[in-house]
Each structure stands twice: as structure tokens, then as C-alpha cells.
């Protein structure tokens, strides 16, 4: 790797666009609209060159269903008032909402000499490492990328590779309303159980603090598994 490739610039996103400047608590994750962040990911990837440092964007989204490139309408059961966005990652449909930690990995995978399968497995293992700190045993599944605890999905994963660079990433259920998952076949699997970190921990582990602590732990785990040193970006916006 070059020096720039070995650095992972981390942004805890609070807003899209710099017009209002930094806002609020830099450790907070106010839910963001999906499409502006998606547009920003694509713009970042299109504009980057061989020396652009890789980035990790940490955030939460407002309620939304996202449907992958090969997504089938039959997996949308009853979306009601929650919008559906057809996007350009792999996989089927999933749900994003407040209380879920989303991590977008904007990496030059060609420069890092990572194959897609290896990248997916290292991301999954990072989540497994994070929950193992709490004594939770989790695992990945090759047929259905993501991280599972006792068969229930804790984290979903989907990537897009364009010109040797990745975007999109993973969503990790922390402390959220899981009911919207019942309105879809998560990741294209009817009846798939879904869980969240709060429900796997003793009482008292919940809310914004759990989200923030998990974001910090996930950053360290991803950096370690992918071979990066972390640089925190000062700007909580893109």
C-alpha cells in the first residue's frame, strides 16, 4: 500500500453539505436522508484518484427500504409510509432507520489488493470482533452475507465496486424499532429473523451511548482487519 492507502479517514456524519457548518454533538448520529448520502458516495468515488485516502462514513439513516440492483418486488411485502429507494449495491431489500449504525466503506480495493470475497469476510469478521467484546458469539454466512447470532441477522452487508473502488457497506442493528423488517423479506429471505445488539445485552446497554460506543469499536475493528491507521475527520459532513 502507498501511504495514503494505509490511512482510513473516518467521518461521523451529522449532515450532508457544508452550508450550515458543523452541528451539535460531534459524537451524535442524527438520522440522515438516504439519497443525499448515496449521491455523495457516488460523487466521492467518481472524483477520487490514485492518491485519495480511503474513508469510512459512520451514520444513521431516516426510515427507508433500499432495494439492491437485483432486487425483486416480491420481497417488498407492505412498505406503507416508508419510502423504497432502488439503488446500485448488490443484494436484495433491507431496512435502515434510527438506532441503526451504518458504516460506508469508500475504499480503493485495487490499491489495497483485496478481492471482493476477502473484503466481505473481513468486514463481517470486524462485526464479529465487536460483539465478541460483550461475550456474544456471532458468525457470517457465505450464502447470505452479513452477521448472525443464533440464526438471526444482526448486520446486513452490501457493496458496489466501481473502477476498483468500493462504496456502500454495512448496517448494524443497535437499538431500533425492528418492526419494519416484518414488512419485507430481509435480504430476500422470507421469514428471516432479525435481532439487535440491545436485545443481546443485559439491561442498561441502550440508546445513544451504545450506538456511539459501538461506532468507536467498529472503527477500530475495521481498521485492524483491513490494515489501516485511523484519522478522524474534523468535519461531520460531506
Question: Can you characterise this structure?
Answer:
The chain is an alpha/beta fold and 238 residues long. It has one domain: BirA Bifunctional Protein, domain 2 (2-Layer Sandwich), CATH 3.30.930.10. Helices cover 25% and strands 25% of the residues. It has 5 helices and 11 strands. The protein has helices at 34-47, 109-112, 116-132, 197-200, 207-226; strands spanning 7-12, 54-59, 64-67, 84-86, 93-96, 100-106, 139-140, 146-149, 152-162, 165-173, 229-232. The strands form 2 sheets. It has an 8-stranded mixed beta sheet. Helix 3 crosses helix 5 (207-226). The model is unreliable at 1-5 and 20-24 (pLDDT under 50).
CATH class: Alpha Beta
Helix content: 10-25%
Report the total helices: 5
The total strand number stands at 11
Radius of gyration: 17 Å
User: Globular, elongated, flat, extended or rod-shaped: what is the shape?
Assistant: globular
**Total individual domains:** 1
Kindly estimate the percentage of residues that lie in beta strands according to DSSP.
25-35%
Question: Quick check: average pLDDT?
Answer: 91
User: CATH superfamily assignment?
Assistant: Bira Bifunctional Protein, Domain 2
Task: Kindly report how far apart the N and C termini lie.
Answer: 25 Å
What multimeric state do the chains show? single chain
Q: How is the CATH topology named?
A: BirA Bifunctional Protein, domain 2
In N-to-C order, the SSE pattern is EHEEEEEHHEEEEHHE
> What's the CATH architecture name?
2-Layer Sandwich
Write out the strand line-up for the largest beta sheet, numbering strands in chain order.
Answer: 7-8-9-10-6-2-1-11
Q: Strand count, sense and closure of the main sheet?
A: 8 strands, mixed
Low-confidence runs (pLDDT<50, min 5 residues)? Answer: 1-5, 20-24
